Amino acid sequence: MKQLFLFLFLGLSILACEPNDPVDPPAEYDPTPYALDVGYFPTPDLPADNVLTVAGVQLGRMLFYETMLSSDGSQACADCHKQIDAFSDIRQFSIGVEGLPGKRQAMPVMNLAWHQNGLFWDGRAMHVRDQALKPIQDPLEMNETLTNVVSKLSADKRYTDQFIRTFGDSNVTSERVGLALEQFMLTMVSNAGKYDNWINGTATLTESEERGRVLFFTEFDPFGSESGAECFHCHGGFNFTNDEFMNNGLDADADQADEGRKEVTGNPLDQAKFKVPSLRNVALTGPYMHDGRFATLEEVIDHYNTGVKPSTTMDELLQYNVQPGGLQMSAQDKADLVAFLKTLTDETFLTNAAFKSPF
């Protein structure tokens, strides 16, 4: 009888190990390069010490949507940078895990591969990898320690396997977390709006959009019968930003509660200067300015038309904005300018499956 039971046991054991049962192969290092498609944009100066790979971008994508990066497991990067809103936050200030608001409006995540002059409104992070780790540790945001993040990720086989594929071993470190997030965010390219299609000869602007385009790229002439809106000085180029820090006349000296770039450099000449954001997808990324004070594009245009306030560090390009009557834009001018700005909306960016949650 014992021999019969032994025979049956061995038979069942063999059946349980049938080769038809799926078995995950062990994770292996995979250095396959990631082919970044930048369309008609110039080739970006990508970091030589963090070459984009398919595995690395996938790891960064996982981390971007991973709630384990927050102290209570309730928030991921994607909660304050939603794809449907062009990876921005439509709240004036993001709300962190402790229910506390942030100090500044969350900047959109897009086209970071071409930002070479610091990140955040004050430029305190020089590289995307640095920027990616700061919200995790901010008490007003995800309020977690990097040590805890490493421990949590190290206990999850999905991540240790992906670290092997990306870096060659399963060692999870905060530096590698930053590098992976950098890889993913550098792939988030937005360059397929109606304006881009017009540039490429596959779309036609309406009369209003074309008038707005001309206004946008034309200087103001105080002595001419027709004048522009001067936007291109700060928001020119393919990415609609000069990548600089500027004081755009939001407040007079006495009312500047946020010192901006000066908080980082300590230089009085940087008082109230903030990073000039890209205007791509701008119709979707309100509220506007570092403190989200303007809810609509119309309010932003009104500010530049007649609302600029002079101060010690106000940019000299705004000299005509502060004169009586400002830029003298009519209601039609403003409507045309808004119409043009809406051509910078990239619908494919909002639905691109490569940027969606992998979970």
Describe the structure.
By secondary structure, this protein is an all-alpha fold. The chain folds into two domains: 40-189, Cytochrome Bc1 Complex, Chain D, domain 2; 194-348, Cytochrome Bc1 Complex, Chain D, domain 2 (Orthogonal Bundle), CATH 1.10.760. Helix content is 34%, strand content 1%. It has helices spanning 2-16, 54-64, 128-137, 146-154, 157-167, 174-186, 194-199, 207-216, 232-235, 262-265, 297-307, 331-342, 347-351; strands spanning 245-246, 274-275. Strands 1-2 form a two-stranded antiparallel ribbon. Helix 3 crosses helix 6 and helix 11 (297-307) crosses helix 12 (331-342). The protein is globular and about 80 Å long. The termini are far apart. Mean pLDDT is 94; it is low at 4-17.
Task: Supply database-style keywords.
mainly alpha; Cytochrome Bc1 Complex, Chain D, domain 2; 2 domains; two-stranded antiparallel sheet; 2 strands; 1% strand
